From TrEMBL:
GO MF annotations, alphabetized: 15-cis-phytoene synthase activity
A GO BP entry: carotenoid biosynthetic process
Pfam families: SQS_PSY (PF00494)
Catalytic function, reaction form: 2 (2E,6E,10E)-geranylgeranyl diphosphate = 15-cis-phytoene + 2 diphosphate
Top-level enzyme category: transferase
Enzyme Commission number(s) of this protein: 2.5.1.32
Record's protein name: 15-cis-phytoene synthase
Keywords, comma-separated and alphabetical: Carotenoid biosynthesis, Membrane, Transferase, Transmembrane, Transmembrane helix
Length: 190
């Protein structure tokens, strides 16, 4: 991801005012070289190794350059659709690049193991939070659990189906969230 950070600095960094479309085109050519196994430096070599180790698709990498071009052309968007497209180019692409590295390729099956592991992480977090009160977002954890429930309800298909918590489920969670937010007698912040 260091390569992405370096590339993003072209349009968002301290020298962004001096960035031209030619510079961006050179970086895009460099990306093509990385995917052809011709890295320029050690960071490129690391990305090239990752590309081949995890069979990464070049499309999200190309798309992020479109987001950078959008950065140079405008800072406001006339419609939600334009903003949504921009968000895909500058953030969604990073997710698509990361998914295969995390072992979640589109053709892979999502096992209940990942859900169980995440529930254990949340439960461990609960135990840690018992020691504290102020500044802890217990309410958010309730929603995260509900998102895990939604993933299970979608038969673990979170790549083509969105797992979300509807407004009514959120509202029904408020009493529990409120109860959890109340101070526990005898507990203090250390």
């Amino acid at each position: 991801m260091d390569n992405l950070r370096r590339t993003d600095e072209l349009v968002d960094g301290p020298n962004a005012d001096y960035m031209s479309s030619t510079v961006l085109e050179r970086w895009e050519e460099r990306l093509e070289d990385i995917f052809q196994g011709r890295p320029y430096d050690t960071l490129d070599a690391a990305l090239s190794n990752t590309v081949f180790s995890f069979s990464l698709d070049i499309k999200p990498f190309r798309d992020i350059f479109e987001g950078m071009r959008m950065d140079t052309r405008k800072s406001r968007y006339k419609s939600f659709q334009e903003l949504y497209l921009y968000c895909y180019y500058v953030a969604g692409t990073v997710g698509l690049m990361s998914v295969p590295v995390m072992g979640i390729a589109p053709e892979s099956s999502v096992s209940a193991f990942r859900i169980i592991r995440q529930r254990c992480v949340l439960q461990e977090g609960d135990r840690c939070m018992e020691r504290f009160h102020e500044g802890v977002n217990r309410e958010g954890k309730i929603l995260y659990r509900k998102i895990l429930d939604a993933i299970e309800e979608n038969d673990y298909n979170n790549l083509s189906k969105r797992a979300y918590v509807g407004r009514s489920k959120k509202l029904l969670s408020l009493p529990l969230a409120y109860t959890l937010a109340l101070p526990k007698p005898g507990l203090s912040i250390r």
